[in-house]
Amino acid sequence: MKTENNLITGLTRDCRAYVELLAYAEQAAEEGLSSLSRLFFAASKARKVYAESYLSALNGITSSSDNLQRAIAHEIVEADELYPQFIETAKKEQMPEVLRTFMLARSAKRKNIHLFEAAVDELGRETPADYYVCQVCGYLYKGHEPIDCPICGKGPQTMERV
Ligand SMILES: [Zn+2]
Predict the structure, then answer these.
(1) How far is the CA of 145 from the centre of ligand 1 (A)?
(2) Residue 140 Cα, ligand 1 centroid: separation in angstroms?
(3) Gap from CA of 157 to ligand 1 centroid (Å)
(4) DSSP string, 125-161
(5) Domain segments of the chain: what residues?
(6) Which terminus of the chain has a smaller tally of CB atoms within 10 A, N or C?
(7) Cβ neighbours of 141 (radius 10 Å)
(8) 159: which strand partners?
(9) In terms of Cα–Cα distance, which of 124, 75, 83 is closest to 104?
(10) CA proximity to 87, closest of 109, 58, 63, 59
(11) Domain 128-162 is of which CATH architecture?
């Protein structure tokens, strides 16, 4: 159906715009342009509203059990199929910085799968936990205090508590 494709296109575009507008907001704030920063931030929130609406229309949000399985499947496809292709292409095209970014992301995604799998096992009887995300490679960590990142090797200061 065309509408389904339009929802997918809208979701893709609004997810990208959400991230871009947040980055624009941070840049504007760094430049001391607080009003412009708030405008970009507000616009990012609007994009999030659209994206969530389109995702819901696509039946992309169901039970937490289903959502966990979907999250695991996405991470596996990206870590085992998509990113290896990205890495090969970046090697061939001699783009070392992009290659490093893809390699770190692939490694982090592979490790992050275990957190989702553990959440499947703990579903319905979970204990309170803190999560951290490495701001360099996206590695997720469950614990009580930040650690050195086992993927990119950066110190605990790169771990953001969420
Ligand atoms: Zn890292």
Answers:
(1) 15
(2) 9
(3) 10
(4) S----EEEEETTT--EEEESS----TTT---GGGEEE
(5) 2-57, 63-125, 128-162
(6) N
(7) 21
(8) 134
(9) 83
(10) 109
(11) Single Sheet (2.20)
- Tell me the pairing of strands 159-161 and 130-134: antiparallel
Token pair 């999030």 is found at 48
Residues whose CB falls within 8 Å of the CB of residue 158, separated by 6 or more in sequence, listed in order: 134, 135, 136, 149, 152
Distance 3 CA to ligand 1 centre (A): 39
State in Å: Cα 92 to ligand 1 middle.
Answer: 25
- From the CB of residue 13, how many other CB atoms can be counted at a distance below 10 Å? 14
| pLDDT tens digits, 106-152 | 999 999 999 999 999 999 898 888 999 999 999 999 998 999 999 99
Global pTM exceeds 0.90:
no
Q: What are the structure tokens assigned to 129, written together?
A: 């936990």
Four-way CATH pick for 2-57: 1.10.1040.10, 1.10.3470.10, 1.20.1260.10, 3.10.20.90: 1.20.1260.10
Distance 18 CA to ligand 1 centre (A): 23
d(CA 34, ligand 1 centre) in Å: 30
